[in-house]
Amino acid sequence: NAGVTQTPKFRILKIGQSMTLQCAQDMNHNYMYWYRQDPGMGLKLIYYSVGAGITDKGEVPNGYNVSRSTTEDFPLRLELAAPSQTSVYFCASSSSYNEQFFGPGTRLTVL
Amino acid sequence: AQSVAQPEDQVNVAEGNPLTVKCTYSVSGNPYLFWYVQYPNRGLQFLLKYITGDNLVKGSYGFEAEFNKSQTSFHLKKPSALVSDSALYFCALGTGGFKTIFGAGTRLFVKA
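Structure tokens for the assembled complex are given below, as produced in the milestone run.
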């Protein structure tokens, strides 16, 4: 079991560029999540999904989009990157009422 | 409103001494409570959870947590701290069956 995998590990973007952060899990979890963690801060939920084809906004969705075409994959799209999106991004998955499993994170810098 | 709070930004303890990291919560209904640990440059790792049953929950790496309904608390404890326990600890409250509210985190520093 690889658990939750994320690519890339690091990325530097210029203002206005776009990119997709990849996330995959092999635990057959229905629920998947995207969080951002700013320096010295806790986690903020960006988007979540309760199953293939179903996604919904979290606490801080502006500037991001997601899709969930399969149970395994949950990519996060950044359109028109801004310095405020500099952060560490974590993908996680879970089954209902249970603990979340986190990926190793993607460290994104927007200059 | 549902919320979780970690009142201490940092906890300092000497190696071998007991440690406590505090967490309080607010929820209507029964809480689902979790503790996670984050080591530098890593994702969060699950330590333990309370859903129902015994108020004392045992988890990974010798950690345990005590659920106290009257005080709405879920403090993380360990009888004897190790230097390797130094990390960032998050308390979390499960809501709606799948969404989770995370606390701001408490940095634990264990001195040799």
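Residues 48 and 56 of chain A are 6 Å apart (CA to CA). The mean pLDDT of chain A is 94. Further analysis is deferred to the final report.
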